Amino acid sequence: MKNKDKPEENKIYALTGGHDTPSIANGNTWAESEVKKRTFSLNGGSKFEHLFDFTNKMASLGFKRSGVNRNPAHRIELQNLPTFSGLAGPMYDGPNKIRYETWETYEAMSI
User: Fold this and answer.
1) Per residue in 30-47, is it b (16+ CB within 10 Å) or e — as a string?
2) DSSP 3-state of 107
3) I need a labelling partner for 79 at 20 to 30 A (CA). Which of 9, 40, 66, 111 fits?
């Protein structure tokens, strides 16, 4: 039996969050602080519910994984998500939605 008061491998948890967001810092358990279903998209197109599938799709499109987002100025939802060469992101796109964009799309949308 798994101990629910410990973090589990391959799961993402909110360590901090607003007063109404379950997180470890707010006194919630690891299970309560687990970040649930998210969707990942490129340029607002196809949506992927699993980071593994999204990462594989980016690789098939030629976007090489280049690191992990650890920018403390970014929202908690964006922490520890992959970065890719040739893409802007990860970016917050609403609750449980993570967006990446090609630089061309990013620049066009940022005007």
Assistant:
1) ebebbbeebbbbbeeeee
2) helix
3) 111
Q: Distance between CA atoms of 87 and 73, rounded to whole angstroms? A: 19
CA atoms of 103 and 36, how far apart (whole Å): 28
Closest by alpha carbon to 92, among 64, 108, 71?
A: 71
Q: What is the pLDDT of residue 2?
A: 54
Is the distance from CB of 77 to CB of 35 less than 8 angstroms? Answer: yes
Give the C-alpha distances (Å, rounded to integers) separating 18 from 25, 73, 75, 81, 100: 10, 15, 11, 20, 24
**Short-list 27, 23, 53, CA closest to 41:** 53
Give me the amino acid identity at 47: K
Q: What 3-state DSSP class applies to 56? A: helix
CB 104 within 8 A of CB 94: no
Helix (H) or strand (E) holding 26: none
Which residue is listed with tokens 């005007």? 111
